Amino acid sequence: MSVMNKPDDVDDAAIVAAAETAAERMVAAREEIGRVIFGQEAVVERTLVTLLSGGHGLLVGVPGLAKTRLVNTLGTVLGLDSRRIQFTPDLMPSDILGAEVLEQAADGSRTFRFIRGPIFAQLLMADEINRASPRTQSALLQAMQESHVTVAGQSHELPHPFHVLATQNPLEHEGTYPLPEAQLDRFLMQIDVFYPEREAERQILLETTGADDANPEAVLQPGELVDYQTLVRRLPVGESVVEAILDLVRAARPGELDGEGGDIAWGPGPRASQALMLTVRARALIEGRLAPSVDDVVALAEPVLQHRMALTFAARADGKTVRGVIEKLKAQIA
Description:
By secondary structure, this protein is of the alpha/beta class. It is built from 14 helices and 13 strands.
């Protein structure tokens, strides 16, 4: 298997040693998260993959499935400065970004001072993001894409790393506003959170209703996550994996194929291909492998593509779903 996107000056031995260390540290982080979050192993893995890839994640599920607790736990375990914003219909953009206030000095002179909003954090939890108005939702767009905000014509850099983990209630719930396609595309992955299995829910009952509740502890030191994000970008990717990504993403666009392409109203752009290139490497690193495989592409196809696609009215009238279309597309590359 030929290897693509590998710099000539890369020290293979150094990458192997760094990857082994990173894998051990991420295993320790997953174990620590598992002491607090029960029955959501796939959700935890995909969230860690999102952060290792340097992106933002959208957690979708009904209330009460520990989405907020997961984000709080991640901030502690990964050693990140984290903050939380509860999105409500009356939330304003300045409540997120910050605002300039006029101050008067003792000599009577007046100056404007910028007061930073809660977005100035390494890990921002946007809780129930789709309960805010579209105007407030759009306030996150520049920050998520460019890692800085502009207030009163002045640019303010956000901390590094900067990640948004947003929770979203299902759109059929009352009081929700659908996220615009442009903002959805800024999320590296949509991570669906489902009800736990019976045994996992039994463990939740036993572990969380007693006198003592487990509290997570920090595993990673500040700066470690940034080093691992750099390492992810240096891992080699085989040509077969690159071709699988291209085949999958291009097949998810309207008019590309005679089959499922006719059911797709609009599909993923090159940003989806970039997301898969990063996330498959991050997943391989978490599992202790030095290079991704086509299986990683198949495993991450749904969370990377589903929020970047929409079906035609005719397809939806026939009972087809985005998940169903993605399953058929995955079967073509598996």
